[in-house]
Design brief:
107 residues; mainly beta; 6-stranded antiparallel β-sheet
Length: 107
């Protein structure tokens, strides 16, 4: 019968915030642009890897492709995943303001 001889553990949690966007500047992806209309950010809490608290993952921003005049093309949606340091200022401000306050405790 196998026997566990080196038992360890850590806690891990995820907290996701999502919402709609109004009046944001278009985002360019290669040669196309989309108008941000949705976003989400997930925060991770890992007591083993990141013992200081919640940290954001990539920010997911998406919206309809637009033409040169800013009108939706009807060709689907664009999407980018950005680290907070490369995201638009409005997204960075949101990420900073919405960090979860719940603390995890090892048992």
């Amino acid at each position: 019968m196998p026997k566990v001889i080196d038992e360890n553990s850590y806690s891990e949690a995820h907290h996701t915030i999502y919402g709609s966007i109004e009046d944001a500047d278009p985002i360019t992806v290669e040669k196309r642009r989309f108008l941000p209309s949705r976003f989400s950010v997930t925060y991770d809490y890992r007591t083993h890897v990141n013992p200081v608290g919640w940290s954001p993952r990539l920010i997911d921003i998406s919206g309809p492709w637009i033409d040169e005049d800013g009108i939706a093309t009807g060709d689907g949606s664009g999407r980018v995943l950005l680290p907070p340091s490369q995201a638009p200022q409005w997204a960075r401000d949101f990420v900073t303001a919405k960090v979860p306050s719940l603390r995890l405790v090892d048992q």
